[in-house]
Design brief:
The protein is mostly helical. The protein contains ten helices and two strands, in the order H-H-H-H-H-H-H-E-E-H-H-H.
Length: 300
Amino acid sequence: MKIRLLSGSVYIALLAAFYLMKIFVPAYGAFCFDVLVYAFSLLGTREMLRAMGDKATKAERGIVTAFSIVCIPVVAAAEYFYGAGITAGAVCLFALGIVLLSLFVCKHEESTPENIGVALLCAVYPTVLLCVLTLVNHACVESGSPLFGVAFNSDLLILFVFVISPVADSLAYVFGRFLRKYFPKQMAPNISPNKTVVGGIGGLIGGMLGALVLYFAYNAVAGSFVDVGLWLPVYLVIGLFSAVATAFGDLVESCIKRKVGLKDMGKIMPGHGGVLDRIDGTLFASIVVYFAFILLRAVL
């Protein structure tokens, strides 16, 4: 438990350091946080390829590794300079698909549909999903938008992802551990037998609780504490759906590990496992947060 707490504390401190650089070094802060996302991509891809073992050929592993090296910087640069991060990500994914399909011709003897599918999975999870977090990191609104008046920008969106998701995950664990004997019904017995319905309910409560704390704390600090009647429900809805996405991400990770026969995806974080074990829920929570931002920017 001490090792788990220590490695978790180091992880939180790392996140806080990169976030503070983003806040206080505005000229380079966004790119500093991109570096952290980039590290997640490289380490996570390495964990996925190692977990899959010989299910992917050497050529496929090289292509996926190259994709993880190129994709995040391309998306970040395209979004920062041209506001075209989504387009850049789509082009990278399209190019990956073409290159992988070309292996059927170039490496016909060793390439199979199953191998190609595994390679594509290792590229999508985590790099393509982390592209969304890169977009979150560069999210901005025009000065005339109502979102600008409440500081609804990338600084807040990152907090949504990295505050709500861990709070939801933690409360799900607490509810599951202490209430399981009273409410033992499992959420997904064939994927993760330790996850219970009551734990899932705790996660939903945790997501909204994290959003509530974030609402009062962030708005007080940012000086944008206005229109309580509108924005508090918005925070709570984002918190609720982010908690659902976090739980789904946990199940996706559990399913992958069960399929390949692993307990943890890596050992870089003692007591937690690998990078993917730590950010599994975050990957999917970032999707909810980003599309909530896109929706609000479109309607306001």
